[in-house]
Structure formats: structure tokens, C-alpha cells
Amino acid sequence: MKNLIFILLILAGVQLAYAQGVTETKIVSKQEQQLLDLSKQKWTWMAAKNADTLAKLFHEKSVFVHMGGSWGKERELNVIKSGGIWYKKAEIHSASVQIMGNTAIVLNRITLLAVVGGNEVTNPFIVTEVYINENGIWQLGSLSFTKLSS
To answer: What are the tens digits of pLDDT across the range 62-73?
Structure first.
């Protein structure tokens, strides 16, 4: 019985450690690193309101899911150009990538400092990015924000 209790305490401690942010170090492939770098660069382009570069990154059929709605490529580019949403700074806490054939999913846990409708706001998010590889070029097919509870 004592052994069972001891094992349960160890398992609870391991789960608690992971819940508090202890993570494994994962070795990533060259392609995975390329996608992580592209995702990170995307945040820089968004902060700089670099719509021309983003237009090349965003797939023609891309979709964007925000707290206030969802829309396609053209509206997202217009929102960025106009400053309707200014992605001022994305502090990336963790990032991971999974590649499945010509599709990759990048997950970022971020704190986003943004200006929305003239108001500066800071929110924690898990951001899901779906990339599609066509003709050797990765393009963003979907960007979805899921707000985390504080």
C-alpha cells in the first residue's frame, strides 16, 4: 500500500511539474526549424504592418480566426494595413511544429500586445498556424487565436 501511495505521489509531482511549464527538449529537423523561423518572422512582419510580404505568405484561400470573428486573406491584410489590429509585439513563450506531408501545424503560446480599435490590449493566446507546402513554398493557410484564461 505504501508503494502505491509513493508511486501516486511521484506521478502527481511529475504532472504538476509539466503543468508548471517544465518541458522536454525536442530536437527538430531542418524543415521543422524552417517553419518555426517562418512563424517567428511572421510576427515581426505583422508588427511592422508589412502587408506586401504577408500577402506572399498568406495562401489565397487562407482564413483567420480572431476573438471578434473570422475572415479571409484580403480582409486580414486590410486590417493590418489600416491598423484595425496592430500586432505590436508577440512574446513567444513556446512553439512547436508537426509536419504531415505537405501540411504543417505550428502552435505558439504567446502574450500578444496589440492595438485594437485604438486601445492597447495584452492577451495570452495559443495560436494555431496551418501551413501548406505548394511547389516547395510554405504558405499560411490558417491562423487562429485561442485566448487563455489568465
So the answer is: 999 998 889 999
